[in-house]
């Protein structure tokens, strides 16, 4: 995917930060237009509305379908906003293109399905259009599946691609509806620096109170934009009502966000980065030494017919290191994940010795 092009509509590149907003679902013509008017007043340039809704269980509101596309055209005519919707199969893409939708996105349940992605890619190739397409992360935290979905579109000639980070499903009650696992979109950025990344704080948080802080976090990490659900009357929304805000609230949220777009390298930063490089080097050396000692212990255990893992020893290491780390101002969660990785690698080395 070397030839990814900037996101553009009608030949105009989209300004950063790219802000997309609108209801989870198009419900009625009045709701679509009233929400759009409020968003246009708030300065939003790209409108979103789900026309076909992928609901977890049958029986929920599954979208208004094709009549909603005509409402989107009214939004464009009346407010000048560009319009976007979600597509999940051939029929959706054909209808959206016929109605002149300006930008498409693929939802998280669809990007997890290679058959659906290939079908969407095929119909886009046949249409020969140059429409921007945003691919949401698959519901499961699988970066290769996410990249595979993008590659199918790219191989079909679509170059105006971007992604939406909407978090990942987890089991059980959590603070977030979908856990952000920021390291996954950051890894995507490392691999494809030109691929725009848009954050969806509405679906990550699942609660309107979390939108502002998640949005700021995303901008601080260098995301290129935000897609935020808004509704003229959120509490009465037909889907995702807890996570939608009014256009007025959205306007306040956007006004308070800081978009960090200063060019990066300054003298100070160069100096600090040198320190980081040096410290990382030290860390690598210490880790290599630790693994060597681990190997020696492994040889001893092997020669004395001892099991590789002593649960009490591991428990003691974890407790004492976490306590020490906390005293040094580092978080417990961070230290647990570091020491469980180190321990896992030591065990792997010692098990290898027994083969
Ligand atoms: C949506 O954007 O309304 C939607 C269905 O999102 P997701 O695919 O992220 O669940
Ligand atoms: Mn939604």
Q: Can you put this structure into words, describing what you see?
A:
The chain is an alpha/beta fold and 355 residues long. The chain has helices spanning 29-41, 67-79, 90-98, 108-111, 114-127, 143-155, 183-191, 201-205, 211-220, 247-256, 267-303, 311-327, 332-353, and strands at 8-9, 12-13, 18-22, 46-48, 82-86, 103-106, 133-136, 161-165, 197-199, 225-229. The protein has an eight-stranded parallel barrel with strand order 3-4-5-6-7-8-9-10, surrounded by five helices. A two-stranded antiparallel ribbon has the order 1-2. Helix 1 (29-41) packs parallel to helix 2, helix 3 runs parallel beside helix 5 and helix 11 crosses helix 13 (332-353). The radius of gyration is 24 Å and the shape is elongated. Bound molecules: phosphoenolpyruvate and manganese (II) ion. Phosphoenolpyruvate is lined by residues 24, 50, 54, 86, 107-108, 136, 166, 203.
